[in-house]
Write a structure and sequence with these properties.
single chain, about 80% helix, mainly alpha, about 0% strand, about 190 residues
Length: about 190
């Protein structure tokens, strides 16, 4: 049981780290940084899609292999619960990718004249969507970490119970009086009651 719990905890924590790393690599919403570009946003969206697929695969794996076992159920629920905020992040990044694609198309059709103004006008909308994506990625990672903590609790209880049982088994017990007299050598006189 501990092996399954440990592997579930590691899988949940590793997934959380992936979402944290993606969040850290999102384009900046700082006005002093350049406006996000379509290629960078598309790359982050591709990375997020892979992470969402990984979550779904974890749910499928645990549901198929451990459907009858209760040990993987908390991990399965943890992975499944993380899909919703991850999809919210994908939706927000998709909105950014769409707006940037439209801006690129307008620039291609109308030339560079006014492109800077159009991008500046879109910046608050892009920053808002990136903020939503960043928050949803944070929620996803936190959800996975909470699930990992939940999964690890039973194994800690199990370890504590094992320690108590080992301690109880190794403590010296007083033998019952019948066992003491039976253990005395035959050639020695023992006192009776």
């Amino acid at each position: 049981m501990t092996d399954t719990s440990v592997s579930n905890v590691l899988a949940l924590r590793t997934s959380a780290l992936g979402f944290d790393a993606l969040r850290d690599n999102l384009p900046s919403t700082d006005p002093h940084h350049p406006s996000p570009d379509a290629v960078t946003v598309a790359r982050r969206l591709t990375e997020l899609s892979a992470l969402i697929t990984d979550l779904a695969d974890e749910v499928l794996l645990r549901s198929a292999e451990h459907g009858l076992e209760g040990r993987s159920a908390p991990a399965t629920v943890g992975f499944a619960a993380a899909i919703r905020p991850a999809c919210e992040a994908a939706s927000a990044l998709g909105a950014v990718a769409l707006r940037l694609s439209v801006l690129d198309q307008e620039e291609h059709l109308h030339g560079p004249l006014g492109a800077k103004d159009r991008r500046a006008a879109e910046r608050p909308l892009l920053d808002s969507a990136l903020g939503i994506a960043r928050g949803a990625l944070r929620e996803t990672a936190e959800s996975l970490r909470v699930a990992a903590a939940t999964v690890s609790l039973p194994s800690l209880r199990t370890q504590a119970a094992l320690l108590r049982s080992v301690a109880a088994a190794s403590s010296p017990r007083s033998l019952p009086p019948a066992a003491v007299s039976a253990a005395a050598p035959q050639n020695r006189m023992t006192r009776g009651r």
